[in-house]
Amino acid sequence: MVRNARFALLLVFIAGCATSSTLGVKLDPRTSATLTFSPTPMILYRDVPGHAAYARNFVSLGPIQTNRSGNYQYFIWLGIWNTHHRLYETDARDGFDSIILLVDGEPLVLDAAGWTPETIGASEPVYVRQVASALDAYYQVTIDQIRLLADAEEVSLKTTGFSSHSFELWDRQSAAREGLRDFLSATY
């Protein structure tokens, strides 16, 4: 009986280890920074019917925690891409130097910290680009700002600059929201 109980306990332990986490962690090979992220970013979009029938601009949004010997920093990554044509990098960046995240109607103004992984102390991107022409942008935030985002019912994004654009959340994003909650529980 005791042996069967131990065996059952071992099976429960193995099953717990085998469950997949919705959290990504990687050690940067050059900088030795530990990078924690949610592998399922949120997707925001805006229709651009003037370019083509189903043309859209997209923004993927995901949290990143960097840990360099106990020095923690938090970032929001944006992957900026579209379905209709390749933009010059300067045109694609237009308006993304400063963005406004509307989190349940409350504005959260973020300024771009940079456009390369080096901005966050990494030698390579954490998130996979959806298309080869996608641009990466990084915005430094606090853990409390990520918490606001994770708890929000409504999220939208507005670019600034000469011609601002608004991006709406694509569907309900349940996997991305779960990933944000997992990110917070692991990094809080």
Structure description:
Helix 3 runs antiparallel to helix 4 (174-187). The chain has 188 residues and is of the alpha+beta class. The chain starts with a helix and ends with a helix. The protein contains four helices and ten strands. Strand 1 (24-27) and strand 2 (34-37) form a beta hairpin. Helices cover 24% and strands 37% of the residues. It has an eight-stranded antiparallel beta barrel.
Primary descriptors:
eight-stranded antiparallel barrel; 188 residues; single chain; disordered N terminus; 10 strands; 24% helix; alpha+beta
Sequence-ordered SSE layout with sheet pairings:
Blueprint: H1 2-18, E1 24-27, E2 34-37, E3 42-47, E4 56-68, E5 71-82, H2 89-93, E6 98-103, E7 106-114, E8 135-141, H3 143-151, E9 155-159, E10 166-169, H4 174-187
Helix pairs in contact: 3-4
Rg, alpha carbons: 19 Å
Helix content: 10-25%
- In the predicted model, the low-confidence regions spanning at least 5 consecutive residues are 1-20
Report the count of strand segments: 10
The number of helical runs is: 4
Shape: globular
Residue-averaged pLDDT: 83
Sheet of most strands: 8 strands, antiparallel, barrel
Order of helices and strands: HEEEEEHEEEHEEH
What structural category do the secondary elements indicate? alpha+beta
State the assembly state of the protein chains: single chain
| C-alpha termini separation | 41 Å
Q: Output the strand order for the largest sheet.
A: 3-4-5-8-7-6-9-10
Beta-strand percent range: 35-45%
